[in-house]
Amino acid sequence: MSRRTLLRSIAVGGAALAAPTVLTACSTDSSGGGNVSNAGKKVVPWPKYSPAKGPTPDLAPTAEGVQPGYTKYPEKLVRAMAEKPGTGKQKIKVMTITYGTPPKPVGQNKYWQAVNEALGVEVEFTVVPDADFRAKMSTLMSGDDLPDMINFGGGYVLPRESQFVKSRCADLSEYVSGDAVADYPNLANIPTYAWEGMGRIAGRIYGLPIERAKVQGGMFINREAFDKAGYRPGMSAPDFQAMAAEGSQGKKFTLGASTVGFYGYLYHAMWHGAPNQWQIKGGKATDMYGTDAFKAALEYMAKMRSAGSYNPDATSISQVDLKTQFYNGTVRSMTDGWGAVISNAQGIKDEFTLDVAEPYQVDGVTPVYQQNRGCFGYTVIKKASKDRVELMLRVLNWLASPFGSKEYELMHYGVEGTHFKYDKDGDPVATETGLIDSKTNLPFPYLMDAPQPLYFPGFPDLTERLHAWEKKVVPLLVPDDHWGLMSETFNRQGATMQQIIEDGVTAIVSGRKKLSDWDGIHQKWLSQGGKRAAEEFLKEYEAAH
């Protein structure tokens, strides 16, 4: 997966990601937001973290990043909000990406109606399918008609995104910086690492991060099919390669990939020992793409593709269609976002055991695992009057209501009896209606969400399995050191740079180009902004540290 894919994977239902085209929303001179660097600026403090009180987990979290695990639903839910954010008369427009199917109109959608009623606000929700997100954002950022709230999610690299936000969106520093966030206690429950991953713009806070677990995503596997092919957690790289070939027989494929997954390259690169995108150390910024480990991973993936271990339509199939192939057993694995666990568990309909692969072992290499940015993305508010901004913040504060609250239950599971029913164990399990009128197709949690626990209603064994997996993998996490840093070059050229990488990876793994071509591809990436971005990230990093 690419960096964008990785981000997206962070997420949600979130799959992976397509290479965005260059947007033309803002000019490339100093206008349209001006200098967004934090270097040399007086920066406002991050919001003061104040964790919400919640139910005691069955499986304990760790300070390093293992999530709290709940094998059963809390018996008693609390009210997180004393009153509705709105009066029932206000209307707001919001926009997010979606990985689901188009929601039914609000007049036919009881989930949408129920959330509107709880908010006391009529929400006009524009959901943009993943495949259309680039074009929609290009139009939006170059136009004058902005929605009240926009989520920059899914991991896309949008040129001059920070300049757009600085020039067109509200500076939220006075509302949430430091102690001010106490007026929005559910937003104060967002851990500091999520704010840091989002980053400041010109020393100020312009967005609100949608927290995600520190674990980036996973290579989700059909455990029975993998075991039959000879899988063992932590097996050697050659044995994994042989296992992948053994499991790819009779139009079944061990490794599933899509047009936005890019053969899962980020996982393989890091398991070969490459840094997590950017490593800044000893006065030097090193990108992963120029390392020997990255080239070794490319060679490894190309051999597995040549052996028939990947689905042959990997360069033409969407992530949504790949999920269908995973659910029906055509492919035995896929890389996906951590937030997609429950939808994947529901999608397979108990046909096999959903699990996550552990890194294989490369001789002489200590494998590392990608630490998440800390957020799926961030939500911004269009410039408006103080009263209007405060209304948006109250709405977002409601959406951030913590696990164990009535508000969280409504946003995540819908209305009891319509969208879910409590099973014999007290877990909220989706009805057929709940699978359609849901947060997947109408993604309120992409605007704002509470910190995520490991809890999968109806799948207590999955909670235990993934908690045990996190305990093994979290010690391997390494961060991407560029998160939260500003680079004028990366803001302007990031999409073009990323497309060079992803096109090159796809060409080499699919066999259209040779491994020896990679050095030229990397040099092109450096000349198109990689070299200068490294210098700018280093300057920002040193200013912040």
Automatic annotation (TrEMBL):
Q: Does the keyword Transit peptide apply?
A: no
Q: Where is this protein primarily located?
A: other
Record has Transport as a keyword: yes
- Cell location: Cell envelope
UniProtKB keywords: Signal, Transport
Entries under InterPro entries matching the protein: Bact_solute-bd_prot1, SBP
Residues making up the signal peptide according to the UniProt record: 1-24
- Output the PROSITE patterns linked to this UniProt entry: PROKAR_LIPOPROTEIN (PS51257)
What Pfam families is this protein classified in?
SBP_bac_8
SUPFAM superfamilies attached here? Periplasmic binding protein-like II
Sequence similarity? Belongs to the bacterial solute-binding protein 1 family.
Q: Specify the protein name.
A: Extracellular solute-binding protein
Q: What organism does the record attribute this protein to?
A: Streptomyces atriruber
